[in-house]
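Hi U.,

Before I forget, here's the chain from the pilot set. I'm dumping it here mostly so it's searchable later in email.
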Amino acid sequence: MSAHPLAPVLIVGGSGVVGSQAAQALRRLHPALPIAIGGRDLAKAQAVAAAVGGAEATAIDLQRADLGLPETARYGAVIVFVKDASLNTLKYAQAHGLPYLSTSSGSFEIAPEVARYIRAPAGAPILLASHWLAGAATLPALHYAREFARIERIDLSALLDEQDMGGPAAYADYERLTTAAGAQVLEDGQWRWLRGDEAVRDIVSVDGETVQAAAYSPLDVVSLAAATDARWIRLDMGLGVTASRRRGEAYSTEIAISIEGTGHDGEPLRVRHELVHPAGQAPLTALSIALGVERLLGLAGGAPVAPGLYFPETLIEPDYYLQRLQEAGVRTRRA
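Structure:
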C-alpha cells in the first residue's frame, strides 16, 4: 500500500475535542479531501464524521498491530491525537508507506519514534508535531527571528486558561508531561532539566498581569535551538485566567515570544510578540495539524513529502503558517 492523495486521511483520536476540530479544519482547507475518523467508540466517531461531511468512521484498537482495521483498508496518512504508547500507529504507517504525524510526546519521550525511523528511514515521512499547540509558538518565533542577525535568547510563554484544558487525552498529556520528567531548557548553551521550584517563574499576560508558570518541554525548545543557535531557550506554561476572561469575556489562549540578540544593523535588539486566539487552544492546535497534513500530502507548499523525520518548521514556511493563523482569527501584536 502506498499513500494516495485521494485516500482518506485517518485521524486516530478524531472524535476527541481537538481531533474533531482538526478534521473540521482540514475540511475547510480542502473540501474534497476524504477523511476517516478513527476512535475507540465507533458511534462517537460516526457522529463526528457526519458533522465533518465527506468523512467515514472506523473503530481503532491501539493494542493491535493492524489497529483493528480491515486488510482492504486504504489510507493517505495517519494522524495521531492520542498518546500511543505501543507506537502501533507508527508501525502501521511505516508498514504501508503512509505519512505519519504525532502530537503528544514530550522532548524526553521521542526516542522510540526516532528509533523506529532509524530502523526504516525510507519507510514513511514522519512529522513529530508535539510542539506547543503543534507549532503555534515555534513557527511564529522563526518568522520573527528573521529580524535578527544573531539570536542570543528566546523566551516563550504560553497561558492556557484553566477552563480550556480540553478533553481527557489532553489532560492525560498535561499530567504526564509535567510529572514524569523535568523540563528541558537551554541555559548558556548547555542543556538542563529543571524540576520543582527551579522550574517555576512568572510570566506576563497580554494585559500586563503576572501569572505563575513553570518550564515545560514539548519540542519547541529543541526545534528552536537547532534552527537558531541561540544560547538561552525556554518555554514556560501557565494554567490560569487569560486576559479575555479577566475582562468578562470567554477564555482565549495566549502565546508570547520574546527574542534578544543583535539586529541586522549590528545594534542590540529585543522584541516581544503576542499571539491570542479568542476561542482557546483547540482551534489553534487543530489548524496547526491541518497545515501539517496538507504539507505532508503535497496539497500546499510543494510536492508530497519524501520519507524522512521532520519537525513542522522543516516543512511549513513560517510566513505561510502565520498568515493562516491570522486568517483563522489569531490576533498578533508587537508589544
